[in-house]
Design brief:
Number of strands: 21
Radius of gyration: 22 Å
CATH superfamily of the largest domain: tm_1862 like domain
Structural class: alpha/beta
CATH topology of the largest domain: pyruvate-formate lyase- activating enzyme
Bound molecules: iron/sulfur cluster
Number of domains: 3
Largest sheet: 6 strands, parallel
Distance between the termini: 45 Å
Strand content: 15-25%
Number of helices: 14
CATH architecture of the largest domain: Alpha-Beta Horseshoe
Shape: globular
CATH class of the largest domain: Alpha Beta
């Protein structure tokens, strides 16, 4: 009887991608994926360390699971940051594995079955060179859109961020390896690929000809892949938005007009304290040049309110920048001190009620902007990639070029097809419509 493994992922798209690669590696060891922890032979918590709440969630989940008979492993960024401490705090844990060591899963599981409680958090090795390749059946089962990690780690050391400590320095995968993985994805039915990196636009991968390729060059290379309809990338840093990448948004039709470009704050004083290495003015100028290249581009951002030392005037600068840019979507959080990061030890922490009030105001503005962007799509015809069945019978959900979910009637086409949709309404984050020329929509 085949063994069953359950992987629960927290946090970012890269953790989602890593979970698929761990599943591929476990499949090679004879594991089938389970939908729930109960009754599984192996439980893997793929953790996120970005905010306090995220890390604490892991320990409460471990407390809930400790009665299970399965082997329990902790992976991801909390595993990397806390290592042995996890087993000390929760002895029920059988092994701990950091993000760069997933290719060692078979060995770690064998050691854990012998009761050795291994902890592997080495950052050195290139896991991709050893990880099992995804099987066609597995890829097809995951859908017509896929993530593909091209770069990992970060050299920026923003004062609030744990990523450089949990994922290590920037490492870019070779173009040939990325191309081969993309080919496999497309061969299994994937139509849209999102290139991932903690600092994806700092990508500088070996091009196989003795040089290195930028992200723009990689996009151009992948866009030539027959059968691949759409490309996206995330997450970018303003300082690595090179001229060739902006030109790619203008010239490459397969590169979707959607850009996630975190700014975090609008005050130069706070940006300096965060070690973001750019000013609000430079960010505004960058947005202008991106919009000049691709006027219909949808912008998304990340924001932190209540960074230590942030005054009312600093926060108003964030609100002013947000108004000036106008975001189609955004993620915003209260500052959360992370162990080991420079800002965590600052005296001038902002009181929680002040953070909460600022977050509430910023999110109200961002929601207003998102609604306005979606309302601006009503009456337009947009190409929609049909992804999966909707909540209602007879309904498909697809993605617009601006990453909006679009609900359409099922007779519009098949999963994997891109259909021209006349957008008739917008509700919350979603759009509704029907293929141009068809009478009824899916509202
Ligand atoms: S650029 Fe992003 S991943 Fe890198 S340290 Fe800053 S916030 Fe973290």
């Amino acid at each position: 009887m085949s063994k069953r493994a359950f992987i629960k992922s927290y946090g970012c798209q890269m953790n989602v991608y890593d979970a698929t690669r761990m599943a591929d590696e476990l499949a090679r060891q004879g594991y089938e994926m389970a939908d729930a922890a109960e009754g599984a032979d192996l439980i893997l918590l793929n953790t996120c360390h970005i905010r306090e709440k995220a890390a604490e969630k892991v320990y409460s989940e471990l407390g809930r699971l400790k009665g299970e008979r399965a082997l329990i492993g902790v992976a991801g960024c909390v595993a990397q940051a806390e290592g042995e401490e996890i087993i000390r705090r929760q002895p029920r844990v059988d092994f701990v594995v950091g993000p760069q060591a997933y290719h060692l899963l078979p060995e770690l599981i064998a050691k854990a079955q012998r009761g050795e409680a291994p902890v592997e958090t080495d950052l050195a090795e290139d896991k991709f060179a050893h990880l099992a390749a995804p099987q066609k059946r597995a890829i097809t089962a995951r859908g017509v859109t896929a993530f593909l990690t091209v770069q990992e780690g970060c050299d920026k050391f923003c004062a609030f961020c744990v990523v450089p400590y949990t994922r290590g320095g920037e490492v870019s995968r070779p173009v040939a390896a990325i191309f081969a993985e993309a080919e496999r994805l497309v061969d299994a039915g994937v139509r849209e690929i999102t290139l991932l990196g903690q600092n994806v636009n700092a990508y500088r991968g070996p091009d196989g000809m003795g040089g290195t390729a930028s992200l723009a060059a990689l996009v151009e290379r992948l866009a030539a892949l027959p059968g691949l309809a759409r490309l996206r990338f995330t997450t970018s840093h303003p300082n690595d938005m090179s001229a060739d990448l902006i030109a790619a948004h203008r010239d490459e039709p397969k590169l979707m007009p959607y850009l996630h470009l975190p700014v975090q704050a609008g005050s130069d004083k706070v940006l300096k304290a965060m070690n973001r290495k750019h000013t609000a003015g430079q960010y505004r100028a960058l947005i202008e040049s991106i919009r000049a290249a691709r006027p219909d581009i949808a912008l998304s951002g990340d924001f932190i309110v209540g960074f230590p030392g942030e005054s009312d005037a600093d926060f108003e600068a964030t609100m002013a920048l947000t108004r000036d840019v106008g975001y189609a979507s955004a993620y915003s959080f209260k500052y959360s001190p992370r162990p080991g990061t420079p800002a965590a030890g600052r005296e001038d922490q902002v009181p929680e009620p002040v953070k909460a009030e600022r977050l509430q105001r910023l999110q109200a503005l961002l929601t207003e902007q998102q609604r306005a962007f979606n309302a601006g799509c009503v009456g337009r015809t947009l190409p929609v990639l049909i992804e999966k069945p909707g909540k209602k019978p007879g309904q498909w959900v697809g993605r617009s070029p601006y990453l909006q979910p679009v609900h359409i009637p099922a007779e519009a086409g098949q999963v994997g097809e891109i259909v021209e949709v006349a957008i008739s309404s917008a509700q919350g984050n979603s759009l509704f419509g029907a293929p141009a020329g068809m009478r009824r929509d899916a509202a």
